[in-house]
Amino acid sequence: MSVVTYGYAVWSPIIWLVVLLVIAAIALYVRSRGQKRYKKGTAQTDVFISGIKVPPTEQRHVPAHNIYWGFFEALKGFYSAMMRPHTGILNDYMLWLVAVMAITVLVLIIVI
Amino acid sequence: MNLKSFNRALWVYHINTGSCNGCDIEILAVLTPRYDAERFGIMLVGSPRHADVLLVTGPVGRSMADNVRRVYEQTPDPKVVMAVGNCGVEGDVFHEAYSLVGPIDQIIPVDVYVPGCPPRPEAIIEGVVKAWAKLETLARQEVS
């Protein structure tokens, strides 16, 4: 196993492995000293939110798209117009492609 | 008190079910330098998941009943419930109020009652000692 020395530092995979094993051993020791009185499958292992009933995961998490709420709200008109033609059907997209190509060719013929 | 089975610090979770805060102030007085219950390892914690004792104040408003029940269920065993103050013990002057479903022992089983309006810190400390003794018994039963 090679040890890379830089003059001011040293890098050895063995040292990393030993460090990780020591950290894992400490973490396992701390965990083993933890609370063991919880009864699994009961409310004792539920999330505690000041005694409030815990809502399902999808209701208590903030999805990433919620961060863009203001953005979507401001551009609502644009999005509703753009989403209508986006049907998800390949035939529609091909029709759009052919139509746009036909218009482009027509414009090019007129201009040139 | 011979602590053999429950030989560690006593952690207490305090839940207010609609108290006027009189009892809550006295509970805090127990932790001030004058009484300093923390020197015995008795301390308030922020979650029932860490608690050995549930310390409940207030006459239990209708909207709090489920919360109290849930907090009780979320506390690991063995656990002891203390009702502190007249309101929690028997409803006091509010016992006929339409908005109440208490007192506390109507919602969850109570082990130690500390009456008073509000009870003095010495009374609360005595209640905690009784709770500790009860926990000692429960812990011994679990071991055997």
Q: Helix content range of the residues of chain A, please?
A: 40-55%
Strand content of chain B: 5-15%
Question: What is the 3D form of chain B?
Answer: globular
Q: Assembly type of the shown chains?
A: heterodimer
Derived from helix and strand composition plus strand pairing, the structural class of chain B reads alpha/beta
DSSP helical segment count of chain A: 5
Given as residue ranges, the uncertain stretches of chain A (5+ residues, pLDDT < 50) are none
Rounded radius of gyration of chain B (Å): 15 Å
Mean pLDDT of chain B: 89
Uncertain regions of chain B: pLDDT < 50 for 5+ in a row? Answer: none
- The CATH topology of chain B corresponds to Rossmann fold
Question: Any overview of this molecule?
Answer:
Chain A has 112 residues and is mainly alpha-helical. Chain A has five helices and two strands, in the order E-E-H-H-H-H-H. In chain A, strand 1 and strand 2 (10-11) form a beta hairpin. The longest helix of chain A has 22 residues, at 90-111. Chain A is flat, with a radius of gyration of 30 Å. Chain B is α/β, with parallel strands linked by helices and 144 residues long. Helices cover 33% and strands 15% of the residues of chain B. Chain B has helices at 22-31, 65-74, 86-90, 121-143, and strands at residues 11-16, 43-44, 53-57, 80-84, 112-114. Chain B has a five-stranded parallel sheet. In chain B, strand 4, helix 3 and strand 5 (112-114) form a beta-alpha-beta unit. The A-B interface holds A 35, 37-39, 42-44, 46, 48, 50-53 and B 15, 47-50, 66-68, 70-71, 73-78.
